[in-house]
Amino acid sequence: MATPLGLDAPCLRGKLRKCSSNIVTKFTASKITGRGFSRGTQLPAGLLQESDKHNKWYGIPVLLQKLYESSHPNSDLLQAHSFLKILSSRLSFEAMTCVTEDRKTAQESTFPNMYTFDLFGGVDLLVEILMRPTLTMQKKTPKMNEDLVKDCLSVLYNCGICIEGVTKSLAARDDFVLFLFTLMTNKKTFLQTATLIEDILGVKKEMIPLEGIPNLSGLVQSFDQQQLANFCRILSVTISEPDAGNDDKHTLLAKNAHQKKTASPSRAEINQVTLLNIPGFIERLCKLATRKWLDNALVLDALMQMATEETEQSSTESSDESSLATSPLRHRLPQSMKIVHEIMYKVEVLYVLCVLLMGRQRNQVHKMLAEFRLIPGLNNLFDKLIWRKFTSSNHVVHGQNENCDCSPEISFKIQFLRLLQSFSDHHENKYLLLNSQELNELSAISMKANIPEVEALVNTDRSLVCDGKKGLLTRLLAVMKREPPDSSFRFWQARAVESFLRGATSYADQMFLLKRGLLEHILFCIIDSGCTSRDVLQSYFDLLGELMKFNIDAFKRFNKYVNTPEKFQAFLTQINSSLVDSNMLVRCIVLSLDRFESQTEDVKVVEVLSECSLLSYMARVENRLSFLFRLINIINVQTLTQENVSCLNTSLVILMLARRKAKLPFYLNALREKEYAEKYPGCMLNNFHNLLRFWQHHYLNKDKDSTCLENSSCIPFSYWKETVSVLLGLDRTSLCAIVRYIDEPFEDLDRDLLED
């Protein structure tokens, strides 16, 4: 009779080694296929213990089995927590390594304990433990130990950052994602929960529905100010349209096709409405954004210096903790850290407000932001927190150069400028950026010019405008003029000021800014500062166009600054270097010239027309034609984006003004002659024909707001539509139809381009 072999028998040890190898293979396969073994609890404890010796699993599969057995419903979770603590200690070193080391991808050999934990079902087990209270049949949901919850969340987070795919697998479980929000009601588990949710939402393919979060309104109302600011980091992912940051780079053809396939309203838009329906939500965000914090504002730029000095002390005097305890740095650092945290919180809050301002509920948001005095509150913070004067030391923050967009203060300033841009853009509430004295100044400008005040100015509620000696716009102008040439803020500052001018042109608004030297500052930046950034130059061209449009005083000031042929040539060189960047300014000059030429009874207008080099240059038809040729040639339907579609509209403005003067046939014939001169007959006109067909398809869409085109040009949109229709006419005998100027052998109109 054969005697049973013990576990130490040589032949059985060989079988176990093979068996343990099969265990790993089977578990790995189950991760891929979803079939077979999925966790260590499905295997005998003895087998796991013996296999552990050969595989160096450090007891993790056995501990997971014990954790599973001690975490059943109605079991003593204190024992389960003790097993989890042991597991956590064996994983924590790898998590620290993962955070501190610069790795491109996680490898099994780098984090063996983490991989073993996940391989044997540790991640799934922790999810089960966390969600177990939701599965009870009891009327009152049992409360789990807070420390157990915190440890579960921490281990899940660490697994996610160390092992590729873990966070994605958690994100695929909608029930778990929504459940995590319920854990945020507990202040002790809030931070761990928020951190894990943020990571999960960052990789989740589908945007979560905020209305699916249990008692969202009560949850948000239970948050203190710091929690609400942290929660804004999560909200930013749920209310922003995907790829919004690259919006200018996507072709309009692709965007239009996407909009056809996408349900309207989008998930992000629905989530925005959900947030706006939470009582007191916007009011609390306004308070967070504008609350004063350390009004004496310890120098943020000294933060890195203090941290460095303290690190040096700790390395040289590590054995003498008493010296650190009595160090003045010990007392100064927490206050400096507080201001950093305050800035970081405000960045998140301003971002959420900015997204809501750009959404479909814009008018509702505007009304609330005005009512809760967001703009006056930001004005009061401007000098003390938003744009503090730097000390001569100018120390960097968190190892980043001060002009790096990564530092908290840089991010805060940029987000502040983006908010101002969104707030002012085409909205009557823009006058809240001024104080009462500045509003009176606008009224006086209108009275002196004998023109009626803008209705939005008359309707502005004076109790909601800025306080103090200067309004927010005036403060922004002051720092804008002091900004160094290579500053990353110049682009955003120009965009924020330009948004104040956008919409229907206001002479008083322009004069308000002209009196503060804005035009001379812009011309200095374009001509004399040596600026080479295309983004900054584009923002200054756009701002200059809005500032000068239809304003004879602005053209007079221009001529006074650009007072030599060399300066004028330098200005033209900048314009011609990239028409995509400068075409809005070209449009402004063309439109202004057209209006001034109809005001020859005004002595000042006649004087400026005769003296201004810029107007004289654009008055020459060959120069207008040169701009037209290039504007049409640098774009086609396949490459049109939100950024360069303005080139198409500027070319249309030139032709609409020509049509008004019955010169449209002359311009179209000039295009034809240009084609033949360059030996590409039909090329330019075929391209322009297709562009105009796209224009109809794009701008005549029922969802498209055409008021921007009308307001910016002072040309009724009906005339835009009519001119395009005339140009696209099929009658070859029509002098104003493009098709007349394309010889039939060269006709190549892409009829199917816009289909589908």
Automatic annotation (TrEMBL):
GO terms under biological process: ubiquitin-dependent protein catabolic process
InterPro entries: TRPC4AP (IPR022162)
GO molecular function, one term: phosphatase binding
Record keywords: Receptor
Signal peptide start and end residues: none
Keyword check for Lipoprotein: no
Highest taxon listed in the record's lineage: Eukaryota
Gene Ontology cellular component annotations, sorted alphabetically: Cul4A-RING E3 ubiquitin ligase complex
Stated name of the protein: Short transient receptor potential channel 4-associated protein
